[in-house]
Amino acid sequence: MGRRARRPGESGGPRVERSGRVWRVRSLEAARGVLRARGETRQAGFTAEYVPKGWLKHHPILMSDGPLHDEQRSKVARFFAPAVVAERYGEAMAASADALLSRADAAGGVRLDDLALLYSVEVTSRIVGLTESSVPRMARRLVTFFRQPPFDITQPNLGRTPQQWARAAANGLLPIARFYAADVRPAIRRRRRAPADDIVSHLIGEGYTDLDILVECVTYGTAGMVTTREFITMAAWHLLADDGLRERFRAAGVRERYAILNEIIRLEPVVGHLYRRASAAFEITDAGRRWRVEEGDLVDVCVRDTNADERAVGEDALDVRPGRPLPSGVNEAVLTFGDGAHRCPGQPLAIAETEVLLTRLLDREPRIVAEPALGWDDLVAGYTLRGFELSFGRPAREASGEG
Ligand code: HEM
């Protein structure tokens, strides 16, 4: 079936390409070199260079670099280790998936992208500790962060006009203020009185201010919840459109299902570009060739290309082939979850969460009523899928094992 998220005008190019002070890297070898050049690069994606950090006591995890960042990461790692995800959150994920799907059973079908949003927000909000507000309302607030005017990260001032900047400030700050008042502040208050085993409590313990905690919650909301929603929809689309793959998924044990999901997300990375600014000169290499990146240059790691780099993943790079041989040290999802200092801590959670929901969804033998519409978002440089309508072929009671 091949890749579904194909972006008009983005059809590959040289493995390493320079245009002025901007580098585009499509070779996996070179891209890994960039993402691992920890001493010589800074985070430049997600508009990090334009987020004012002066008023924060702690730098946000996604946007800081260096030894303090490593320490921040190692302290939150305990919330995301694969064994922790399965043991601590397995039951909650299953309960959340069952509740949402049984509501869909009553309607005989579901708009999957909507259900996936509620599900990913519910699961992640428990781990983060945002549990004092309604999940559907929080989900609506998170989605509004993305209503931003377009931008081009390679241009000075993101290529925006002053009017677009004004609109960006209004569109961005108002939803964040609402998210703080409705979701984050009540969670902080409760945990200041009674700490729990979650990220908000951990950040309070580390001396984070309310504002610092808000910024971290925005990261988890956007980097964690919204990305997982897109992936769930994409993975379901592949599985429903490919009978062989779906049968294999349904017959497989959990490890093989994870391998299938990692292979789908390799082919369909949700975050399409990762950006780094060189804070010092460094070299990148690809198949014996070398280039020198100068201090101040911007490097665009083109994840859709690196993940389909035939030299690394094989000639059938654009097919779904779970368990494909990969060079040693390369993750099953290749660079979908990044690499090096900012590597996503949420991969085991995102994959486990998707497996739990899709296993239950496929038991209902869904059929596609309307394929999702593909769109593109500048902030995560990735795809969006909207309007994926499914009807259930199998009566709900049978699917849940009661019939
Ligand atoms: C399909 C789902 C997901 C995808 C595709 C994804 C992708 C990514 C990528 C590519 C990065 C690295 C950014 C960079 O190097 O510039 C990242 C960072 C991050 N992700 Fe995820 N992510 C997903 C799910 C999650 C989940 C479920 C969580 C947690 C609840 C999470 C939390 C984070 C955090 C905290 C960072 C920042 C890490 C750092 O900068 O040190 N992500 N994610």
Keywords:
14 helices; globular; alpha+beta; binds protoporphyrin IX containing FE; 5-stranded mixed sheet; 3-stranded antiparallel sheet; 403 residues
What does this protein structure show overall?
This protein has 403 residues and is an alpha+beta fold. It has one domain: Cytochrome p450 (Orthogonal Bundle). It contains 14 helices and twelve strands. The strands form four sheets. The chain has a five-stranded mixed β-sheet with strand order 1-2-8-5-3. A hairpin with a 4-residue loop joins strand 10 and strand 11. The chain is globular. Protoporphyrin IX containing FE binds next to helix 4, helix 8 and helix 13. The site of protoporphyrin IX containing FE (HEM) has 26 residues, from helix 4, helix 8 and helix 13.
In DSSP terms (H or I, runs of 4 or more residues), the helix count works out at: 14
Mean pLDDT: 90
CATH topology: Cytochrome p450
- Relative helix content: 40-55%
Please tally the β strands and state the result.
12
Q: Which regions contain 5 or more consecutive residues with pLDDT less than 50?
A: none
Structural class from helices and strands? alpha+beta
Radius of gyration, Cα only, in angstroms? 21 Å
Q: Brief description of this entry?
A:
The chain is an alpha+beta fold.
Write the layout of secondary structure elements.
Elements: E1 16-19, E2 22-25, H1 28-36, E3 41-43, H2 67-76, H3 82-107, E4 109-111, H4 112-128, H5 135-144, H6 162-193, H7 199-205, H8 210-241, H9 243-251, H10 254-267, E5 273-278, E6 282-286, E7 289-293, E8 298-302, H11 303-306, H12 310-313, H13 347-363, E9 366-370, E10 373-377, E11 382-386, E12 389-392, H14 396-399
Helix pairs in contact: 3-4, 3-13, 4-5, 4-8, 5-6, 6-8, 8-9, 8-13, 10-13
